[in-house]
Amino acid sequence: MTTAKIYIHAFKVSKTANSVPLETLINTISNHRISDRIRTVITSSVRIDRVKTDPINASGEKLTYIDFVKLRDTHGPGKASKDVAVNDIALAPDEYFGEETAALYIPQKKWLITQYNHYGVRPSAMAGYFSSYAANQANSYELTIKLDPDAQRRFLAANEVRRFEMALDLTKMRAKDRQQGIGLGTIAAIGADLDGAKLKITISVGTERKRRLTGRVKDALTQMIQHTDMVTSAQIAGRETPDGHIEVVDLLDEKLVTESHITIGPGRRLDQNERFRALAWAWSNWRNVL
Predict the structure, then answer these.
(1) Which of 51, 77, 96, 223 could cross-link with 71 by S-S, CB 3.0 to 4.6 Å?
(2) How confident is the model over 191-201, as a mean pLDDT?
(3) Do 199 and 234 contact (CB within 8 A), yes or no?
């Protein structure tokens, strides 16, 4: 295999009023030594390995490419062949497995285009890395996922929310999640303490046609998805008017996504420049919806 398929998502970047612009922070990080860029996000060591900025293009955009790395210092894969059993990959005591995840930031538009990497740095970890990077500055950044145009239309039109469903992976719950209320309080805590793995919650108005959930439900559900990797499924069912047709929006499966085939390097890694190229291609194709 000489190529591999990657998936690409889009996130809107927002910050609190007292936070420095993200492009300023990224520039600061790029000027630090690579050994000084490591931060702990939850329990993982995360670092930005490379920042590459293209000059302003014909559309007036400055493109900033970022390559995140998760340093996996616990365990990792071995090497094998068709004729040889799996054996160790030689690593020095100060060497680790590194999971690379590329991102493209467009400062003028405040969009972050990201490579999806299940085992690497997820978007919530990117936001956590940026927010915690400067010890002397109270920065806080959030990434809001972009739904595909049709799902976005249906989500915004759901003025009369009748039901929402959410499934959580309790094995990914952290103490910090519970402290922030992301663990859904006592129910989730009990489930985790009993060694449960999955939790599914459904809140609905039942069969009463005139009832609807409060307007806060969409904000609450969106916030939950942005701030934790525990959510494995999330759906909302609603209608535009009391007499309208009920539409169901899947907030995970209907997100804006594209795929690209990129070159695999000689060390079986996904080439960095190829990943950057794929992100730029996705951005150029999404300009009409972002």
Answers:
(1) 96
(2) 67
(3) no
